[in-house]
Amino acid sequence: MNEHVQLASLGERFRQVREQEGVSVSELAARSGIDTRQISALEAGRLDPAFDVMCALADGIGVRLSALFPEN
After folding, report:
1. Using CA atoms, how far apart are residues 5 and 31, in angstroms rounded to an integer?
2. Architecture of the domain whose range is 3-68
3. What's the predicted TM-score (pTM) here?
């Protein structure tokens, strides 16, 4: 699987979890300290986030870090 496909899959899974938990992008940005543009870029598969960014986003959504990654 190439990097672009992996990032797209990560972004899709991330958006699903965020929406399932009922958290908007702006609310997540406020909770996590991560800029809305970075969150949008992640969801669009254009950003390969650092580990600390993913941890902050998971905390902001209120889920375990592992929930943000695709199962495949």
Report:
1. 28
2. Orthogonal Bundle (1.10)
3. 0.88
